[in-house]
# Entry
Amino acid sequence: MQFRNKAVVLMFGAMPVLALAASSGPHWGYEGHEGPANWGTMHKDYASCGLGHKQSPINITETKKEKLPAIEFNYQPSALKIVNNGHTVQVNYADGSSIKIGKDSYKLLQFHVHTPSEEQVKGKNYDMVAHFVHKNDAGQLAVVGVLFEKGKDNAALAPVVARLPKTAGPEQAVAGVSIDAAKLLPATRGYYTFEGSLTTPPCSEGVRWMVLKTPVQASAAQLDAIKAIVHHNARPVQALHGRVVKESL
Ligand SMILES: [Zn+2]
# Structure
């Protein structure tokens, strides 16, 4: 996942806390000396990328099946605000959308994409993943991953594909166009869940991850259009270090 919205995520105990400050860390990327293998040693603020034991993404293989609370999605349409931040294309979401898991509520802040998917399921990457980034009142992050496979045209994704910013730059508000995150979700919403981190520097831990088990589809043309902008922007899978992945029944 990516969290880069005029904010830098700092470590405060195990909890990422948001501070309004410009990122001061060095430039990072997905290839060569700026690539994921070097993130942990690029800057002291990125140390978790190399030293953390609860890093994301992961390969989801062994799971512990149990009865988990359903994720209640309360997503509303939002006026389209889209940004190419040089690492991904991100849709910043208007206030008023949230998820609830048991007693825990988190507000939806944004979603963004990675090609291919960062998460693997049984060693397999999907063509794309969308990370829906949420935050609760205590500043803790919860990310819902929706996996995309090649298939039918995805009408809910069309407003994004039609307005992909080709180069990095400021957020663009698209007049008269809205996006409905609810329609990007699969009909069945069983999930895998585990403790993890941001998948981009500073790789802060304390992030609650939920990856929906059922993928959704997008056309080859849609996936190619996104990939042409974001290129390969998936961090490799990270060691579990004893973490258990729970799977809903
Ligand atoms: Zn992400």
Notes: Helices lie at 36-42, 47-51, 158-162, 220-230. The CA atoms of residues 85 and 157 lie 19 Å apart. Residues 1-2, 112, 114, 131, 199 surround zinc ion (CB under 6 Å). The chain has one domain: 8-248.
